[in-house]
Amino acid sequence: MAESEAESELKATVGGKPGALRLSRKQSSLLVQAGGKKTEVPLSQVVWAEANEGNVLVSALVRKGNLALVNWHCECDAAAAKPWVEELMRAAYGDVKPRRRLKIIINPVGGPGRGRQIWEKRAKPVFDAAHAELDVTFTERQGHAGDIAESLPLDFDAVVTVSGDGLLHEVLNGFAKRPDARKAMQIPVAPLPTGSGNGFALSLIGLKDGLDPAAAALNVIKGQPMDLDLCSFTQAGKTYYSFMSQSMGLMADVDLGTEHLRWMGNARFMYGFLRGLVSLKECPVELSIKVSDTDKKKMVDTHRALRSKRVASASRPDLTDTNVEDLEDSSLPELRFADGPDHEWITFEKPVLYVYAGKMPYVSVDLLQFPVSHANDGLIDLVVQERTQRGDLVKAIGVAPKGGQYWIDSQHYFKVHAYRAKPLGPGYLSVDGEAYPWEEFQVEAHAGLATTLSMLGHYAVDF
To answer: What b-and-e string marks burial along 431-444, b requiring 16 or more CB atoms within 10 Å of the CB?
Structure first.
């Protein structure tokens, strides 16, 4: 690239002070100079630029602890303004379509009960600055988001849930009830975190910014579609779909047994875990597994190789280049293991403290439970914690945010195609944070059945 193409400067008065706007494709950044103050912003964080004769507006998210929206109002030569702004927008968005049309579904009392406030103060201004077209609905009851998804027109660029992880569970199962279910699941779904756990947002955006609504809004604005595996969950002849996790024993009690403490936010999970350590109650379950891999070191090596491959290839083309109506077969996939376990399955024989299965790395800010999981490898990550001494589990608390418990000998980690659980006594069962009957069930993975948005093309976790 020639130097003239790599950098482009627009002399301007910025906020009433003499300065300049300098676009650097080489550095992938925008430098804003106003008087003696200079602010450099990655192009990925520039959400809008427009020129009205000699007046230029540039909007971007600037790091001030969390990401904060900043609008620069500039005055410059009218003839130079329009082509420079057009060049900036091309550099900032690349192949991504600006001004996305978004269906926003908000749980106004999600998590600690501040869903509406967080949306209005931290997220909506970012979408407005990016000139997104918003269709907003506040949920009024449990199951409302599923009803919306079941009848939603398929002309949105994405569906955004402003809540914890439970609302997304409703949306995907609403899609699954449609006669055109597979077409509906091609519409990307993305989280805007206002709940207690927010595992999906943490997994997509990373530990640093995963709880920041502005960063999540940026992911919706700039992210490209990424295939997302789902798990079919079959119980009593009915099939549901899980996008995040299923848990039994201690970890289900941590989630469902602290529902009355939602006002505590994420801290309720730590309280529930410490409470469970007092009793160390065994999880009464018969567990059958269709195994793909059990070698922890090999799984880490595979994880890193897949991660490198996906960094190179990024994600699939933007939704604007596809048409969901062109999908020939809109039915959901048949269950491959509907007949249940056979001779190729194994049974876990040791006493179990908890069973935790998942499709994304983080389940909360304090727990990187599935550090080698991938969005679209077609496998479920299954953790079986055998009953062990309290001291081992207490030590695991300190390393859990970085996934250190993965290496504990008593924590068995499997990559699986499917598994079946048969309760042998009373207990809890949580699916994507929602309570399900503690009855026999089977789960299997379905590769790339749904779609999300990602600015990276892979989960934001280093392990």
So the answer is: bbbbebebeebbbb
Token pair for residue 86?
């057009």
- CATH fold of the domain at 101-226: Rossmann fold (3.40.50)
Tens digit of pLDDT for each residue in 121-169? Answer: 999 999 999 999 999 999 999 999 999 999 999 999 999 999 988 899 9
DSSP three-state, residue 239: strand
The answer to whether residues 269 and 197 touch, using CB atoms and an 8 Å cutoff, is yes
Residues in the chain: 463
**Tokens 């293991």 sit on residue:** 337
Q: Which CATH fold would you assign to the domain 3-93?
A: PH-domain like (2.30.29)
Count Cα neighbours of 403 within 13 Å in the Cβ-side half-sphere.
20
Structure tokens at 108: 């106004």
Name which CATH class applies to 238-322+337-448.
mainly beta
Find how far residue 433's CA is from the centre of its chain. 15
182 touches 332 (CB < 8 A): yes
